[in-house]
Specification:
The protein is mostly beta strands. The protein has 3 domains: about 80 residues, Elongation Factor Tu (Ef-tu), domain 3, CATH 2.40.30; about 80 residues, Beta Barrel (Elongation Factor Tu (Ef-tu), domain 3), CATH 2.40.30; about 35 residues, no CATH class. Helices cover about 15% and strands about 40% of the residues. The chain contains 4 helices and 12 strands; from the N terminus they run βββββαββββββαβαα. A 6-stranded antiparallel β-barrel has the order 1-2-5-4-3-6. The protein has a 6-stranded antiparallel beta barrel with strand order 7-8-11-10-9-12. It is globular, with a radius of gyration of 18 Å.
Length: about 220
């Protein structure tokens, strides 16, 4: 688990293709690795990766086909900048929100504009994720815990303060930049819980509609 509070901006050193999947080498600048051992998790642009080797200046991780298909990892190349965060410990401050590092989909930056010392970004999420994104709710973008200011259909707006622009890869975003999105864990589990006993039947699917809520007593 993670908090979404970025600790470092790392750099992809190499991307090695291996029998259909990929091995990455990531260099960190100020991430403290003394307490990291092979097998530990590091969120890399919001993707939970397992460190398999620790060469001293960063870590090496294997990326499965599933992760390549569902995240932006397949677009990374040598020199790509990535947000880094070590896994949460019982002593950590939960400054953001609870983040799993399991990416739900890929969004796209629609616009960026200056707003006093901050900047406002509009991001378009996949339509299937729109129902999980709420006004003043939390969302993780490339591993960064952020608060949603405005929601309009599948698009949502973020206000990014100078510190976050400087300390994360968000400062590099431009229109058309593709980003990893993870919606709030509570929203995902709440939908499943609302299905009740029907969740056990594949034909029920996972879609919550107004008619479903009415049929099951959630609406009057």
């Amino acid at each position: 688990m993670f908090t979404g509070i970025i600790e470092d901006i790392g750099e992809i050193v190499s991307v090695e293709k291996r029998s259909g999947d990929v091995r990455l080498r990531v260099r960190s600048n100020k991430l403290l690795l003394a307490d990291i051992a092979p097998g530990d998790s590091i969120a890399t642009n919001g993707v939970c990766l397992t460190a398999v080797e620790l060469p001293g200046d960063g870590y090496i991780a294997d990326v499965s086909v599933e992760t390549l298909n569902l995240t932006t990892v397949g677009e990374w190349k040598s020199g790509s900048k990535v947000n880094l965060e070590k896994a949460l410990t019982p002593q950590s401050r939960l400054g953001g929100h609870i983040v799993s590092g399991h990416v739900d989909g890929i969004g796209e930056v629609v616009s960026r504009q200056v707003d006093a010392r901050s900047e406002r970004f509009v991001i378009r999420a996949p339509e299937a994720l729109a129902k999980y994104i709420a006004h003043k709710g939390s969302i993780t973008v490339d591993g960064t815990s952020l608060t949603v200011n405005v929601v309009d259909g599948a698009e949502f707006e973020l206000n990014i303060v100078p510190h976050t622009l400087q300390e994360t890869v968000i400062g590099n975003y431009q229109p058309s930049t593709r980003v990893n999105l993870e919606v709030d864990l509570i929203a995902r589990y709440l939908e499943r819980l609302l299905m009740g006993d029907k969740a056990a039947h594949s034909s029920a699917g996972t879609s919550i509609s107004e008619s479903f809520l009415a049929e099951n007593g959630y609406l009057k």
